[in-house]
Amino acid sequence: MKEERLRVLLLGGYGxxxxxxxxxxxxxxxxxxxxxxxxxxxxxxxxxxxxAKAALEPVVMDRCGDSxxxxxxxxxxxxxxxxxxxxxxxxxxxxxxxxxxxxRICYLDLADATTFVAGISSLDTLAKEVGAFALxxxxxxxxxxxxxxxxxKPGFARTDTxxxxxxxxxxxxxxxxxxxxxxxxxxxxxxxxRDGKAATGYGLMDSVQRTIAPPGCVPLRRxxxxxxxxxxxxLLPQAIAGLRSVFSGAGTEPQMLQRLLxxxxxxxxxxxxxxxxxxxxxxxxxxxxxxFGEHRGGMFVTVTGRTADxxxxxxxxxxxxxxxxxPFIPAMAAEAIIxxxxxxxxxxxxxxxxxxxxxxxxxxxxxxxxxxxxGIRDESAADDAKPLYRRILSTxxxxxxxxxxxxxxxxxxxxxxGRATVERGTGLLARIAxxxxxxxxxxxxxxxxxxxxxxAGQETWTRTFAEKxxxxxxxxGTGRDEHLLAExxxxxxxxxxxxxxxxxxxxxxxxxxxxxxPLPLFLxxxxxxxxxxxxxxxxxxxxITSPLTGLIVRYTGWLA
Length: 560
Hints:
This protein is an alpha+beta fold. Among the domains are: about 150-325 and about 370-380, Dihydrodipicolinate Reductase, domain 2, CATH 3.30.360; about 385-560, Lipocalin. It is built from 16 helices and 27 strands. The chain is elongated.
């Protein structure tokens, strides 16, 4: 007997997030996906471009029109509203949701608007009466952010603050509806909790500075996160008794454009302009043309509070997505719920925000198909006493090979020795740079020793090749250099990301300075530098090159 397919109508199914949800679910043969929107031609064109095991059908439906007749004819089991924006849905914002409930059709959406997501619970009784579910906020906020929060909870007897932010890649090509949503609340009052009291922030004007850095991963550049209208601002105080502060924001690149929007938001706050919404198409075009910066995006959730014995506790969850993979994340909560339904775990009847529907374990297999790295950092004061590399790597420390971990688990002073091969660059500038730092001469086989002096949170490394020594001082970066290793060679400071991958600890240059002055990254000394274990020995491969000089020095070897 042919297995009956689950019929899912995706409103906005050929749009920015709806289209990505279709692609995420396209490998599932137990689904019929009805790709709905105002234009049948666009829907048909989209469907023609997707290779799928799921059955794809283009249909026409307008969210603001008479949906009863359309839904009755199509008879979906589930309606997914990915059309947006949800910040201004008219005098009857739940028109579509109520239609679905009346027809006993389940519903979920990718809404991220505080009022809309928080208010859907007003339909809870109606939904339960007919045995349907209606879930709002099946997106990065609040479904994923609350899943991360749940993973951060262990050890907290009291939660004081929750701070969260999302940082889309500048090359992610935000849809017009996303820009309309952001423009709608720029400069307008946003209710939140501050210092334990109800307070008012202003969209895109209040801000925090944060660095997104999953342990063992190259961090995103530190950036400003401007206050965003997300459901978490209303839902977190309801979920956590005694919460003293909550903030959620967006850190868009280029930051120059975000700051310009923040300045224009003053026109709304002071009264001359009612809203920046009419300028949304202009902002959208500007964001498309000013798409410069790293093609990477991320998200974080940070929690502070106290333990049962009244110790301060701080813990954070971080996510980084490479390239074009990030824009799939807002659709993954909806994907996870649909896949769980197919596995026999249909959500309970009722209308509510999607704050407790999913755990991080539901997202992890979905992330694994993409270049997405996540991790949790413990950032409490007690961790400051740990060795330097343990602090920076946090939970990624557990993935290091034993000999690499042993070498960096240093306290006090000690010396280790081994053998090395040294190669030197032959160009004039390369020789001058090597002489300034004190790098050793070329040698095919030379005894090497490293003396570690660990004190006051930093490490002094004295490397001796035969009788030639050079020294550097390593410490944990702070402020804009947070979660990086800072290594000082005389007047130069090099900023390094510690990346744990494939059994190696890779050192990736993220910046450099001369006498404290930042220098262009594209001129920074680089090269393939890593540490690994071979035959139980700690082995190193250090390569220092520069676009100006070529190879400066390369030394490889082992330490016992």
